Amino acid sequence: MATTGSEDTRTRMWWGIAGLVVILYALIPVLWIVSLSFKTTDTVTDGNFIPRSWTLDNYAQIFSLDIFTSALVNSIGIAIISTVLAVVIGTMAAYAIARLDFPGKKTLVGVSLLIAMFPQISLVSPLFDIERAIGLFDTWPGLILPYITFALPLAIYTLSAFFREIPWELEKAAKMDGATPLQAFRSVIVPLAAPGVFTTAILVFIFCWNDFLFAVSLTSTQRSQTATVAIANFTGASQFAEPTGSIAAAAVLLTIPIIIFVLLFQRRIVAGLTSGAVKG
Amino acid sequence: MSIESAPAPTTGSTQVGAPQGRKGKPVRSEGKRAERRLGLLLAAPAAIIIVGVTAYPILYAIWLSLLRYDLRFPADQAFVGLANYATVLTSGYWWSAFGVTMLITIVSVAIEFVLGLALALLMHRTLVARGLVRTVILIPYGIVTVVAAFSWQFAWTPDKGYLAALLPDGSAPLTDFASAMAIIIVAEVWKTTPFMALLLLAGLALVPDDLLKAAQVDGAGAWQRLTQIILPMMKPAILVALLFRTLDAFRVFDNIYILTQGSNGTGSVSMLGYNNLFKAFNLGIGSAISVLIFLCVGLIAILFIKLFGASAPGSEPTGRR
């Protein structure tokens, strides 16, 4: 249809093709696991991308195990609480680092960089000992605390890079008009920083939801075991049956909440990043 | 909440658009003190949590690396100095894992940067289905690594997978070093390119459109606008994205764990550390490996800062008013 040779049509066509490539890139591995989750036991090893016969048995089996349903609840609760806390704490710290002069600033930056770099695997065993000693082992706070800690460097780093690009004359103007630093922060900077904060919130939520190493090390029962651990345990539990369908169903269930979350935040991110709030 | 610094003179409404003329006004020391107090107050929660949750465990991990400490023989604990490091560094396992890790890190971060920048530009500029692309791209990013790894594993499993079906009969790509590494890198790149793109997009949003339009009017082509305006202005975001992804890629674990379990020489340094801690139960050796990984990662960060001028937040002298 691009026979008109019009510059605009051709451009749109190329953007369309590029968009299609991205969409396929993003969706094919996901659709594959969805496909596996609907395959019957007989056809799960047929290698077809689209199931020949469909079934919900894999899901029924997953939902009959309350070890998995409780793990899903734990995952959602722990990830959301960790995200909110980490973003609030991280925004405060990043603002202070980017804009304010206070003693210990360099130390805080240095230490949070150390945390960002430190391989989590080496913290697992000491944390295991400490949490058992103080009763945090196998509790929600026992996971939330390390999640916040390891999300903070990411939050602080990303946000302060953002904050340094914000036109601070606005804050200065507010202060000259008599606003306190806190007022300037709340009424001028927060709206400008919102895009960065929302982007950061997504990064942090994904980090918490993704975690496997801490979850498998610092939990032991359904009280706090998260979904990533449940799916891994499930793999091991069905060594005599063909576990592919069940793993796929569990994997899809693990993916659904994040898709919902991404959809909810997507609009705000797009609005935030495209609102032009930062433009002079 | 009750930080009252300056005696607020209500000189009219807070007008957007700072009057440039008043720049030379001296900062009152009272305001300076209030700023220090606010700074401490805002930074305190982060500092307390970071110190509380990690300072002791980090020191403990370093201490453990200096001990002979096998969980199977807990009574046989002794200070051995750097003997664990000597054991690790003279072992072929460490250097093989190190090579594998470096290869995965360099190749996947390089691919991710190019793809991520293209993706960020697409999300920023596209005229077609922009919202759909932006939503869809968050899925690989958001999906749990273990889940994605299972998808790739099933896809490449002979007889089961749609991708394995494309290969000649009898090939098992996950059991051969080169193809397994390629699959691990594909899994890494697929999963984390959106991370890169999101961070770059955040930087891209700060590049003023007016400037690009002006450059276009002046005759700058798309490539020139990218290399002369967009990339330099995005530098902070690019360095954050590269630094974080490099540090993260160096710790690659989940994908390898699901895809190959480190067989056929595909294990990373993190796999090595994990196996020493949770399979060999050797806390001393495992901690030494962890500390070595940390040192490698520290070197990478220093290289970034020295070579590319990545600035740690707050470390730059010009950030103050």
From TrEMBL, chain A:
Residues 72-265 form the ABC transmembrane type-1 domain. The chain crosses the membrane at residues 12-34, 72-96, 108-128, 140-163, 184-207, 247-265. Keywords: Cell membrane, Membrane, Transmembrane, Transmembrane helix, Transport. The keyword Transport applies. Pfam families: BPD_transp_1. InterPro entries: BP-dep_ABC_trans_perm (IPR050901), MetI-like (IPR000515), MetI-like_sf (IPR035906). It is a multi-pass membrane protein. Belongs to the binding-protein-dependent transport system permease family. This is Carbohydrate ABC transporter permease.
TrEMBL record, chain B:
The keyword Transport applies. Keywords: Membrane, Transmembrane, Transmembrane helix, Transport. Belongs to the binding-protein-dependent transport system permease family. The chain crosses the membrane at residues 38-63, 93-123, 135-157, 177-206, 280-305. Residues 98-304 form the ABC transmembrane type-1 domain. It is found in: Cell membrane; Membrane. Residues 1-31 are annotated as: Disordered. Coiled coil: none annotated. Residues 8-17 have a biased composition (Polar residues). It is a multi-pass membrane protein. It comes from the Bacteria. InterPro entries: MetI-like, MetI-like_sf, Sugar_ABC_transporter. This is Sugar ABC transporter permease.
